[in-house]
Amino acid sequence: MMPIPRARAALLAATALVAPAIAQAQADETDTRLLTDPFLQAPADGSVNVVWFTEFEGTDHVVIAEGREIAAETMKMSRLAEDAGSHVGTQAGDGSLFESYTPRDVWRHEAVVDGLATGERVPYFVRSTDEGGDVVESREFSLQPLPGEGQPLRILLTSDHQLKPMTPANMQMVTETVGELDAVFFSGDLQNVPDRASEWFDDARGFAYFPGLQGRASFDLERTREEDGVTTTTTATYRGGEIIQHAPLFPVIGNHEVMGRFNPANPIGSQFNDPRPRAVAEALYEANAELYNPEGDPQIREAWIRDNSFNTITYEEIFTMPGTGPAGDQYYAMRFGDVFLIGLYGTRIWRSPSMDPGTTGKFREADANLNTPDNWGWGEFIFEDMAEGSEQYEWLQGVLESEEFRSAPVKVALMHDPSHGLGDNSIPVFAHPVQILDRDDDGRLTGVRYEYPLEEDIFVNDIEPLLGEAGVDLVHTGHSHLWYRMVSPQGVNIMETSNVGNTYGCYLEGYAERGGAPDDPRFDATNYPVTGDPHGYEAVMPTEFSPMSYEDGAPLPCVSSNELSTFTILETGADGATVSSYVFDTARPGEPAKLFDRFTLD
């Protein structure tokens, strides 16, 4: 058995005190003074964690379940803030409330509810007491511990919510179509800027992250359609779906979960867009160690390097993951009923493909920064290496050799960045940037460029063979905001089902071409295919019907729309595992979602 993570073991001990039996009570509606409803994390044998957030430190934070009060452990979030770009309260991104970077006080509460029976749901709610002594309660929801072998499961596969306009509608249609879920597997890009508190909790536009997954959103979606010469405009208000109050959430890190260099003098969005490789920060630190850290304190060293490269502090503070990897919660693996889940840290910074002289982008450094490497972006560098020989690769090897993995009937891996796919972000491939220094005849630096050789794709060369040989059934990716699926030569299903809130296009010959390839003859164009999968995989046609078509009416193997939205459900049971995808038209509110693709995991 994989050991209980140290952080979870400590929390279990801290919340083990249980009050005598009390009368069960509940509120009709969650008190708005709770920043979120409770949600579920880290299910284990006989237990599950309950997490919620408030804007007050308060006292007596408890979960009430089965007539018991289970005390929560409280911590203050360390990096959440707002600034002029926030949409919060009466401020609409105009700086009327927050002129500049302003820390926001948010507290996180977490309790371990143990003593649970496998396969049995238990009602629960949470209660907090604010500084004035007022008691604040949530509504009643349900929880259960880690599912047992053979227990039927219904799991949502999703990604890339990112405060996009169709996301609340998508989550609402999930609950209306399939009902109660047992888990959510989330392949990254939960919101846009991870240190901006309102994007998680209460963005004034009505589509923040937690409200969408808890049925507490409020987003008016206006759509216009023409049919038989008649123009119809509809406006529907969507509240999202009540999902994670009942089903544990398993996210992985996408590029929108990673903050760049920390500098409160800069706007939050500017910090987000300003990461640099850890190796660059380490080299700068070592060159100036006596200045930055004269006592040689290792904690000061680590904090300086982190704040001058990139970090996932807010993501890791918000979520409690299985913590089975050497990097804590950044990547993990666990058995969940009949499903073995592998959460990979496979993402990189997104940068503009523009070749404009002023761009710090995918393919170049800005001309103005050539002589100041401290301002370089270093291309679309990978945040956590997974190439052969890396820590993550060696950890994955061990996971795939474990009995827990081998004995699981269904094997699923999550990773944000797609090495395969039909979207815009399928190029450049998942390779380390190769830096090219251009010089004139006198040796002066005239340009810094980055190539991403197709044959150096880390996922295709190193990770995909491991997963295929081990018998992984499904790799679920995100990042490009569309739906498609493929099957590798080794029989691994590769799927992106991220046409949730919007799309960035589907690129197939005869349909559309990617615009993200470098428009410069100095680059090798074969590294940047403008249509299809970069590695030549063919997309599978949907089994029931294709929601979209070419101009001539021929069916497309993808869904890429700002009016159609898709969601996907993984189901396990006595008859095996199936993956079912549904589509609905936001221009036709009230119409049900339709099944358009279904396949089995053999």
From TrEMBL:
UniProt entry tagged with the keyword DNA repair: no
Organism whose genome encodes this protein: Pseudoroseicyclus tamaricis
Keyword Methyltransferase carried by entry: no
Superkingdom of source: Bacteria
UniProt GO MF annotations: acid phosphatase activity
InterPro entries to which the protein is assigned, alphabetical: Calcineurin-like_PHP (IPR004843), Metallo-depent_PP-like (IPR029052), PAPs-like (IPR039331)
Record protein name field: Metallophosphoesterase
Signal peptide (residue range): 1-27
Short name of one Pfam family: Metallophos
